Amino acid sequence: MDRPTIPDLAKAAGVSVSTVNRVIASEGNVSALKRAAVQEAAERIGFYGVTAIQSRVSASRPKLRFGALLLQPHRPFYQNVSAALHDAAAQVTEAEIEMRIEFLENLSPQATADAARALADKCHAIAITSAVHPQITHAVEEIAGKGVHVFAFITQLSAAGQMHYIGLDNWKVGRTSAWTIANHCKAPGKIGIITGSHRYRNQEMKEIGFRSYFRENEPDFTLLEPLSTYESSAVAQEVTEKLLTDHPDLAGLYITGGGISGAIAALRARKSAAKLVVVGDELTEITRAALLDGTLTLVISHPLDRMARDLIRGMVKASTTRHGGNWSSITAFDMHNRENI
Protein backbone atom coordinates (compact mmCIF):
# COMPACT_ATOMS: atom_id res chain seq x y z
CA MET A 1 0.00 0.00 0.00
CA ASP A 2 1.31 3.46 -0.90
CA ARG A 3 2.23 5.60 2.05
CA PRO A 4 -0.25 8.42 2.88
CA THR A 5 0.31 11.71 1.07
CA ILE A 6 -0.36 15.28 2.18
CA PRO A 7 -3.79 15.26 0.42
CA ASP A 8 -4.58 12.02 2.28
CA LEU A 9 -3.61 13.68 5.55
CA ALA A 10 -5.70 16.75 4.77
CA LYS A 11 -8.74 14.57 4.07
CA ALA A 12 -8.23 12.54 7.27
CA ALA A 13 -7.88 15.71 9.33
CA GLY A 14 -10.85 17.47 7.71
CA VAL A 15 -8.76 20.47 6.68
CA SER A 16 -7.35 21.87 3.44
CA VAL A 17 -4.04 20.86 1.90
CA SER A 18 -2.78 24.40 2.44
CA THR A 19 -3.54 24.09 6.16
CA VAL A 20 -1.49 20.89 6.37
CA ASN A 21 1.37 22.62 4.57
CA ARG A 22 1.23 25.54 6.99
CA VAL A 23 1.35 23.13 9.96
CA ILE A 24 4.36 21.32 8.47
CA ALA A 25 6.06 24.67 7.77
CA SER A 26 5.27 25.82 11.32
CA GLU A 27 3.50 28.95 10.12
CA GLY A 28 1.61 30.87 12.77
CA ASN A 29 -1.76 31.45 11.10
CA VAL A 30 -3.28 28.05 11.98
CA SER A 31 -5.55 27.58 14.96
CA ALA A 32 -4.52 25.24 17.78
CA LEU A 33 -7.61 23.14 17.08
CA LYS A 34 -6.62 22.54 13.45
CA ARG A 35 -3.01 21.83 14.40
CA ALA A 36 -4.23 19.20 16.87
CA ALA A 37 -6.51 17.70 14.19
CA VAL A 38 -3.61 17.41 11.74
CA GLN A 39 -1.39 15.79 14.36
CA GLU A 40 -4.09 13.32 15.39
CA ALA A 41 -4.78 12.36 11.79
CA ALA A 42 -1.06 11.97 11.02
CA GLU A 43 -0.69 9.60 13.95
CA ARG A 44 -3.81 7.68 12.96
CA ILE A 45 -3.00 7.09 9.29
CA GLY A 46 0.74 6.63 9.74
CA PHE A 47 1.83 9.73 7.82
CA TYR A 48 5.57 9.62 7.12
CA GLY A 49 6.21 13.09 8.56
CA VAL A 50 4.34 12.50 11.83
CA THR A 51 7.41 13.12 14.01
CA ALA A 52 8.03 16.49 12.39
CA ILE A 53 4.36 17.43 12.75
CA GLN A 54 4.39 16.48 16.41
CA SER A 55 7.45 18.66 16.92
CA ARG A 56 5.93 21.62 15.03
CA VAL A 57 2.62 21.40 16.91
CA SER A 58 4.38 21.14 20.26
CA ALA A 59 6.58 24.14 19.47
CA SER A 60 3.55 26.23 18.45
CA ARG A 61 1.69 25.71 21.71
CA PRO A 62 2.06 28.34 24.42
CA LYS A 63 3.83 27.06 27.52
CA LEU A 64 1.76 27.96 30.56
CA ARG A 65 2.27 27.33 34.25
CA PHE A 66 -0.85 27.27 36.42
CA GLY A 67 -1.12 26.94 40.18
CA ALA A 68 -3.86 25.95 42.60
CA LEU A 69 -3.87 26.64 46.32
CA LEU A 70 -6.13 24.14 48.09
CA LEU A 71 -6.97 23.35 51.69
CA GLN A 72 -5.59 20.63 53.95
CA PRO A 73 -4.07 17.63 52.11
CA HIS A 74 -5.48 15.08 54.60
CA ARG A 75 -9.03 15.82 53.42
CA PRO A 76 -10.13 13.37 50.69
CA PHE A 77 -12.16 16.03 48.89
CA TYR A 78 -9.10 18.16 48.16
CA GLN A 79 -7.11 15.16 47.01
CA ASN A 80 -9.94 14.52 44.54
CA VAL A 81 -9.80 18.18 43.48
CA SER A 82 -6.06 17.89 42.87
CA ALA A 83 -6.47 14.76 40.73
CA ALA A 84 -9.23 16.40 38.68
CA LEU A 85 -7.08 19.48 37.99
CA HIS A 86 -4.11 17.40 36.87
CA ASP A 87 -6.36 15.38 34.54
CA ALA A 88 -7.97 18.51 33.08
CA ALA A 89 -4.58 20.13 32.44
CA ALA A 90 -3.34 17.00 30.67
CA GLN A 91 -6.34 17.03 28.32
CA VAL A 92 -5.67 20.53 26.96
CA THR A 93 -4.51 20.49 23.32
CA GLU A 94 -4.07 24.21 22.62
CA ALA A 95 -1.32 24.75 25.20
CA GLU A 96 1.29 22.85 27.16
CA ILE A 97 0.41 23.25 30.82
CA GLU A 98 2.49 22.66 33.90
CA MET A 99 0.14 22.29 36.87
CA ARG A 100 1.35 23.08 40.38
CA ILE A 101 -0.86 22.09 43.31
CA GLU A 102 -0.11 23.30 46.82
CA PHE A 103 -2.04 22.53 49.99
CA LEU A 104 -2.50 24.70 53.05
CA GLU A 105 -2.02 23.00 56.40
CA ASN A 106 -2.07 26.32 58.22
CA LEU A 107 -5.34 28.05 57.31
CA SER A 108 -4.50 31.36 58.97
CA PRO A 109 -5.00 34.46 56.78
CA GLN A 110 -1.32 35.37 56.85
CA ALA A 111 -0.21 31.85 55.87
CA THR A 112 -2.75 31.80 53.05
CA ALA A 113 -1.69 35.23 51.77
CA ASP A 114 2.00 34.29 51.87
CA ALA A 115 1.37 30.98 50.07
CA ALA A 116 -0.70 32.72 47.38
CA ARG A 117 2.04 35.28 46.73
CA ALA A 118 4.74 32.61 46.52
CA LEU A 119 2.69 30.47 44.13
CA ALA A 120 1.80 33.44 41.93
CA ASP A 121 5.49 34.31 41.50
CA LYS A 122 5.87 31.04 39.54
CA CYS A 123 2.63 31.02 37.52
CA HIS A 124 0.70 32.74 34.75
CA ALA A 125 -2.59 32.15 36.59
CA ILE A 126 -3.58 30.72 39.96
CA ALA A 127 -6.72 29.35 41.56
CA ILE A 128 -7.39 29.85 45.26
CA THR A 129 -9.73 28.06 47.64
CA SER A 130 -9.76 30.22 50.72
CA ALA A 131 -11.70 32.00 53.41
CA VAL A 132 -12.44 35.69 52.96
CA HIS A 133 -10.16 37.94 55.00
CA PRO A 134 -8.64 41.43 54.44
CA GLN A 135 -5.09 40.03 54.40
CA ILE A 136 -6.01 37.52 51.71
CA THR A 137 -7.93 40.11 49.70
CA HIS A 138 -4.93 42.44 49.81
CA ALA A 139 -2.62 39.64 48.63
CA VAL A 140 -4.96 38.81 45.74
CA GLU A 141 -5.06 42.46 44.68
CA GLU A 142 -1.25 42.57 44.71
CA ILE A 143 -1.05 39.40 42.62
CA ALA A 144 -3.56 40.65 40.05
CA GLY A 145 -1.70 43.97 39.90
CA LYS A 146 1.38 42.07 38.69
CA GLY A 147 -0.57 40.61 35.78
CA VAL A 148 -1.20 37.15 37.23
CA HIS A 149 -4.79 36.02 36.73
CA VAL A 150 -6.54 34.91 39.92
CA PHE A 151 -9.50 32.54 39.98
CA ALA A 152 -11.63 31.87 43.04
CA PHE A 153 -12.25 28.11 42.98
CA ILE A 154 -15.08 26.39 44.88
CA THR A 155 -15.68 29.40 47.11
CA GLN A 156 -15.94 33.04 46.05
CA LEU A 157 -13.48 35.61 47.33
CA SER A 158 -15.27 38.77 46.23
CA ALA A 159 -18.86 39.70 46.99
CA ALA A 160 -18.78 42.19 44.12
CA GLY A 161 -18.07 39.40 41.61
CA GLN A 162 -14.98 41.17 40.25
CA MET A 163 -12.86 38.00 40.33
CA HIS A 164 -13.13 34.99 38.07
CA TYR A 165 -15.11 32.33 39.93
CA ILE A 166 -15.49 28.63 39.14
CA GLY A 167 -17.98 26.91 41.41
CA LEU A 168 -21.60 26.33 42.35
CA ASP A 169 -24.55 28.62 43.00
CA ASN A 170 -24.31 28.00 46.73
CA TRP A 171 -27.56 29.82 47.51
CA LYS A 172 -29.33 27.19 45.42
CA VAL A 173 -27.38 24.43 47.18
CA GLY A 174 -28.68 25.70 50.52
CA ARG A 175 -32.27 25.93 49.32
CA THR A 176 -32.13 22.47 47.79
CA SER A 177 -30.81 21.08 51.07
CA ALA A 178 -33.64 22.80 52.93
CA TRP A 179 -36.24 21.42 50.50
CA THR A 180 -34.88 17.92 51.05
CA ILE A 181 -35.09 18.13 54.83
CA ALA A 182 -38.51 19.80 54.87
CA ASN A 183 -39.99 17.21 52.54
CA HIS A 184 -38.46 14.17 54.24
CA CYS A 185 -39.27 15.08 57.84
CA LYS A 186 -42.51 13.47 59.00
CA ALA A 187 -43.47 16.60 60.92
CA PRO A 188 -42.00 20.07 61.55
CA GLY A 189 -39.34 20.18 64.24
CA LYS A 190 -35.89 21.47 65.13
CA ILE A 191 -33.23 21.62 62.45
CA GLY A 192 -29.53 21.77 63.35
CA ILE A 193 -26.91 23.47 61.17
CA ILE A 194 -23.23 22.54 61.33
CA THR A 195 -20.85 24.65 59.26
CA GLY A 196 -17.09 24.85 58.88
CA SER A 197 -16.62 28.59 59.01
CA HIS A 198 -18.63 31.57 57.81
CA ARG A 199 -15.37 33.07 56.55
CA TYR A 200 -15.87 30.77 53.55
CA ARG A 201 -18.34 32.56 51.33
CA ASN A 202 -19.73 29.35 49.85
CA GLN A 203 -20.70 28.11 53.32
CA GLU A 204 -22.22 31.44 54.25
CA MET A 205 -24.31 31.47 51.06
CA LYS A 206 -25.48 27.91 51.67
CA GLU A 207 -26.78 28.86 55.10
CA ILE A 208 -28.48 31.99 53.72
CA GLY A 209 -30.24 29.92 51.06
CA PHE A 210 -31.12 27.23 53.59
CA ARG A 211 -32.73 29.70 55.97
CA SER A 212 -34.49 31.60 53.19
CA TYR A 213 -36.27 28.45 52.04
CA PHE A 214 -37.61 27.67 55.50
CA ARG A 215 -38.55 31.31 56.08
CA GLU A 216 -40.57 31.41 52.87
CA ASN A 217 -42.06 27.92 52.77
CA GLU A 218 -41.81 26.09 56.09
CA PRO A 219 -42.22 28.55 58.99
CA ASP A 220 -43.30 25.79 61.43
CA PHE A 221 -39.74 24.42 61.54
CA THR A 222 -37.29 25.81 64.10
CA LEU A 223 -33.79 26.46 62.77
CA LEU A 224 -31.14 26.39 65.48
CA GLU A 225 -28.11 28.65 65.50
CA PRO A 226 -25.23 27.21 63.45
CA LEU A 227 -22.35 25.41 65.14
CA SER A 228 -18.87 25.82 63.68
CA THR A 229 -16.40 22.97 63.17
CA TYR A 230 -13.49 25.26 62.23
CA GLU A 231 -12.88 22.76 59.40
CA SER A 232 -11.93 20.06 61.94
CA SER A 233 -13.45 16.56 62.08
CA ALA A 234 -12.67 16.29 65.80
CA VAL A 235 -14.54 19.51 66.53
CA ALA A 236 -17.38 18.39 64.24
CA GLN A 237 -17.78 15.19 66.22
CA GLU A 238 -17.82 17.12 69.48
CA VAL A 239 -20.39 19.71 68.39
CA THR A 240 -22.62 17.06 66.82
CA GLU A 241 -22.61 15.01 70.03
CA LYS A 242 -23.52 18.13 72.02
CA LEU A 243 -26.27 19.02 69.55
CA LEU A 244 -27.83 15.57 69.87
CA THR A 245 -27.60 15.71 73.66
CA ASP A 246 -29.06 19.21 73.97
CA HIS A 247 -31.84 18.55 71.45
CA PRO A 248 -33.05 14.93 71.67
CA ASP A 249 -36.10 15.97 69.62
CA LEU A 250 -33.97 17.10 66.67
CA ALA A 251 -35.71 16.37 63.35
CA GLY A 252 -33.03 17.22 60.80
CA LEU A 253 -29.42 18.26 60.35
CA TYR A 254 -27.60 20.19 57.65
CA ILE A 255 -23.81 19.64 57.55
CA THR A 256 -21.74 21.91 55.34
CA GLY A 257 -18.02 22.62 55.39
CA GLY A 258 -15.06 20.67 56.69
CA GLY A 259 -15.32 17.98 59.33
CA ILE A 260 -18.24 15.92 58.05
CA SER A 261 -16.45 12.66 58.92
CA GLY A 262 -16.57 13.64 62.61
CA ALA A 263 -20.27 14.52 62.39
CA ILE A 264 -20.98 11.16 60.74
CA ALA A 265 -19.12 9.34 63.53
CA ALA A 266 -21.22 11.14 66.16
CA LEU A 267 -24.46 10.33 64.34
CA ARG A 268 -23.58 6.64 64.06
CA ALA A 269 -22.83 6.47 67.77
CA ARG A 270 -26.36 7.62 68.66
CA LYS A 271 -29.11 5.18 67.79
CA SER A 272 -31.66 7.95 68.20
CA ALA A 273 -29.98 9.78 65.31
CA ALA A 274 -31.21 7.13 62.88
CA LYS A 275 -34.55 8.97 62.56
CA LEU A 276 -32.91 12.23 61.49
CA VAL A 277 -33.00 13.61 57.98
CA VAL A 278 -29.39 14.60 57.28
CA VAL A 279 -27.93 16.43 54.27
CA GLY A 280 -24.18 16.74 53.79
CA ASP A 281 -21.56 17.90 51.28
CA GLU A 282 -19.27 16.10 48.83
CA LEU A 283 -19.31 12.48 47.71
CA THR A 284 -16.25 10.73 49.17
CA GLU A 285 -15.73 7.19 50.41
CA ILE A 286 -16.85 8.35 53.86
CA THR A 287 -20.05 10.04 52.74
CA ARG A 288 -20.81 7.24 50.27
CA ALA A 289 -20.73 4.72 53.13
CA ALA A 290 -22.92 7.03 55.21
CA LEU A 291 -25.49 7.19 52.41
CA LEU A 292 -25.52 3.41 52.11
CA ASP A 293 -26.05 2.79 55.83
CA GLY A 294 -28.68 5.54 56.13
CA THR A 295 -26.68 7.99 58.25
CA LEU A 296 -26.97 10.57 55.47
CA THR A 297 -30.13 11.18 53.45
CA LEU A 298 -28.61 13.26 50.64
CA VAL A 299 -25.19 14.47 49.57
CA ILE A 300 -24.77 17.50 47.31
CA SER A 301 -21.39 17.63 45.66
CA HIS A 302 -19.19 19.54 43.24
CA PRO A 303 -18.85 17.86 39.81
CA LEU A 304 -15.08 18.08 40.02
CA ASP A 305 -14.24 16.89 36.50
CA ARG A 306 -16.48 19.53 34.91
CA MET A 307 -15.30 22.26 37.25
CA ALA A 308 -11.64 21.41 36.68
CA ARG A 309 -12.13 21.61 32.90
CA ASP A 310 -13.91 24.96 33.26
CA LEU A 311 -11.12 26.28 35.44
CA ILE A 312 -8.28 25.20 33.16
CA ARG A 313 -10.16 26.46 30.09
CA GLY A 314 -10.69 29.82 31.79
CA MET A 315 -7.04 30.03 32.81
CA VAL A 316 -5.91 29.32 29.25
CA LYS A 317 -8.22 31.98 27.84
CA ALA A 318 -7.19 34.55 30.45
CA SER A 319 -3.51 33.86 29.81
CA THR A 320 -3.66 33.89 26.00
CA THR A 321 -6.30 36.52 25.26
CA ARG A 322 -5.14 40.11 24.95
CA HIS A 323 -8.43 41.76 25.80
CA GLY A 324 -9.91 41.34 29.25
CA GLY A 325 -12.87 39.14 30.03
CA ASN A 326 -14.74 37.41 32.78
CA TRP A 327 -14.03 33.68 32.70
CA SER A 328 -16.36 32.75 35.56
CA SER A 329 -18.44 29.58 35.30
CA ILE A 330 -21.32 28.44 37.53
CA THR A 331 -21.61 24.65 37.41
CA ALA A 332 -24.73 22.60 38.12
CA PHE A 333 -24.26 20.53 41.28
CA ASP A 334 -24.66 16.76 41.67
CA MET A 335 -27.07 15.12 44.12
CA HIS A 336 -26.59 11.65 45.54
CA ASN A 337 -28.74 9.34 47.65
CA ARG A 338 -28.39 5.68 48.50
CA GLU A 339 -30.26 4.64 45.35
CA ASN A 340 -28.09 6.40 42.77
CA ILE A 341 -24.50 5.94 43.97
Describe the structure.
- Strand 6 (190-195), helix 9 (201-217) and strand 7 form a beta-alpha-beta unit.
- This protein is 47% helix and 18% strand.
- Helix 1 crosses helix 3, helix 5 packs across helix 13 (304-320) and helix 6 (109-120) packs parallel to helix 7 (134-145).
- The protein has 3 domains: 6-60, no CATH class; 64-168 and 303-333, Response regulator (Rossmann fold); 170-301, 3-Layer(aba) Sandwich (Rossmann fold), CATH 3.40.50.
- The model has no long low-confidence stretch (mean pLDDT 92).
- The longest helix is centred in the middle third of the chain and has 17 residues, at 201-217.
- It has 341 residues and is α/β, with parallel strands linked by helices.
CATH architecture of the largest domain: 3-Layer(aba) Sandwich
CATH fold assignment of the largest domain: Rossmann fold
- Report the average pLDDT across residues: 92
* CATH level-four homologous superfamily name of the largest domain: Response regulator
Number of domains: 3
The first-level CATH class of the largest domain is given as Alpha Beta
End-to-end CA span? 51 Å
SSE run: HHHHEHEHEHEEHEHEEHEHEHEHEE
Number of continuous helical runs: 13
> What structural class do you assign from the helix and strand content?
alpha/beta
Global shape: elongated
> What share of the residues does DSSP label as strand, in percent?
15-25%
Low-confidence residue ranges: none
Helix-residue proportion: 40-55%
Number of strands: 13
Q: Mind describing the biggest β-sheet?
A: 7 strands, mixed
Radius of gyration equals 24 Å
